[in-house]
Amino acid sequence: MLDKMEFVKPGDIEARSMEIITGELGDTGWKEPELSVVRRCIHTSADFDYNINLKFSKDACKKGIMALRNGADIVTDTRMAMAGINKRRLAEHGGQVHCFIDDETVLREAKERGMTRSAICMERGAAIKKPVIFVIGNAPTALIRLYELVQNGEVKPELVIGVPVGFVNVVESKELFMQADIPWIIAVGRKGGSNVAAAICNALLYYKDEVEF
Amino acid sequence: MLDKMEFVKPGDIEARSMEIITGELGDTGWKEPELSVVRRCIHTSADFDYNINLKFSKDACKKGIMALRNGADIVTDTRMAMAGINKRRLAEHGGQVHCFIDDETVLREAKERGMTRSAICMERGAAIKKPVIFVIGNAPTALIRLYELVQNGEVKPELVIGVPVGFVNVVESKELFMQADIPWIIAVGRKGGSNVAAAICNALLYYKDEVEF
């Protein structure tokens, strides 16, 4: 079995993976920086459905990249996404990641108001007094609450990465959010998750080319 | 759009999700505790491929559950899996999670020996002097190195959860490990990842029924 394996040096594994993904994708019509995002989502999941699922509002990637380069913070509803986002790269630009899900005041308030902790986390994020990118990899309730906050003018995110995963109101929450007049990246359908959320952030953080408007 | 949504109380969302998954799966032939593992992998990914991809050596789930209840530690190659595993539940039994990937000595040794950090992490795990479950959600090189350690008699894991994801030697590393004569849970093919790795651990940690041999 070992002799069937391809020899790839440790430092070259990611590049080789991207080469395989690019080859199998063929000509998709994606341009950069969207193509980098699509590829990294497939890289983290081995699921080519992300070639079809991912939707971008106009210039969402460029706007996200610019926001990150200008030091935007990231607010996420999941500890796993927080663990996966390249915080060193983010900090180089002046940003940091926040996940309020384990905050005791969030837990208490969620119970009192009959809401999910994830939804309360979005309110905490909306109170941050600097540019913020919201990254939702778990709970559709967070995406719905964030939509309400946006519509009420209580927050104006630089970008929303809306990739909650699951079966209860996930599809609907994404369709709802795509109506918002702010930059968004959404994986339509049931699929998504913290790995996809982190992958999209990292694709934007790693994007090397100049981004112009 | 909001009026199309199903009203489910925050505390009931997971149960409702599992109900939907069970309904769509239909009669799969899975028995418990394997069924709980399959369902939780689908829950974390919305990908029903895990109904087909997941393979279990004889009594792997039971053995894993018993090991966790007896206080086994978990060693993983990914920070995201570490973030996702229910550490409070694990600690109730006396276990803890280790991820050595950011250890500076691991980085140095990987460079010196021309290996991946993930592979060196398995060696660190093998040196732990108590029962250990190995959980590989990222790197096939970790699964390959662990196989060598097992074959050389240098470690005898209680269970190996082998769900690396990707395109370079991932399929082959899993086929290789399924030859090992220790308990394993493997997602064959390219798919897997840190979310799936954490989901399998949590399915075993949350399993409520008595497990008998």
Automatic annotation (TrEMBL), chains A, B:
Source superkingdom: Bacteria
Sequence similarity: Belongs to the CobH/CbiC family.
One annotated GO biological process: cobalamin biosynthetic process
Record pathway: Cofactor biosynthesis; adenosylcobalamin biosynthesis
Naturally occurring in which organism (per UniProt): Frisingicoccus caecimuris
Limits of the Cobalamin biosynthesis precorrin-8X methylmutase CobH/CbiC domain: 12-206
InterPro entries linked: Cbl_synth_CobH/CbiC, CobH/CbiC_sf
Keyword line: Cobalamin biosynthesis, Isomerase
Protein's UniProt name: Precorrin-8X methylmutase
GO molecular function, one term: precorrin-8X methylmutase activity
